[in-house]
Amino acid sequence: METSLNSRRNEEAHSDYCGHNENCEPRFPYGGRGHRDPVAGTPAIAVCGLSARYPSAIRNALTSVSITVNRGERMALLGANGAGKSTLLKAIAGLVVPLEGDIRLLGNPVGACHHRTVYLPQKSSIDWKFPMTVTELVMTGRYVHLGWFVRPRKDDYTLVSAAIERLGITRFSDARIGELSGGQQQRVLLARALVQGAEILLLDEPLNAVDEETRSIVDDVLAAEANRGCAVLLATHDTGSLTESFDRVIGMSDGRVIYNEVPSAIRGATEAEESEFSHVRKLLAFRGQG
After folding, report:
1. I need a surface site. Which of 39, 115, 197, 235 has the fewest CB within 10 A?
2. Residue ranges per domain, the chain?
């Protein structure tokens, strides 16, 4: 009787998990949210008239922002600190509630297909003193497919090992995350994003203060993800590799979109744009003194 009961429990547990079938919904999904299929013919990201404000602020962090990112497209968000890049990414990820406007991901509302969207925050927002290994952190990228009460299985560990190898950090797989350099930590976060198998990557300053090897590896990985149809929206300060790394560039200033261009146009206007950003920074500093 006990053997039969254990067997049935194992079968039920197995049915809660779909291995490589990323479209299968866990029996007990996080937050009670379901997994909706993409709507055919829709862009990966469609933001229309988005405005947002943090609870303690008196001014909007975003004002009337509208952007579209197609599947297989790599788009850069360019702007100074405080321009609204991080807030826009958080709003798309469902971490900031808009005041007005609409956000659609693969044709669905935010949160309706959360397993298809991954948000990689700035490295500084992670507690790197937390006692976990590289493998354990990367494995958390699989949890959205597991839901509650289901442990990772062989397929999950295979995906994690492959992502770690792809980012060139296999030798650190058993190391504590606090023992890594800044560039290595950034690669771990990207590996975590990759194992989710998402179709939308939202990346906040993944190339900030990293070594050239990490920069090259990250760029190659993101190019490969775009080639498989993944949409990449990446916040950056770096104007040096726009032409090689992105299909389009959105410039932001004071919570607004100030241009949406192909990279070649931005490179030709880099000096003028930097002058504009400098003017905005001086204006904000003046307001802060008042």
Report:
1. 39
2. 2-289
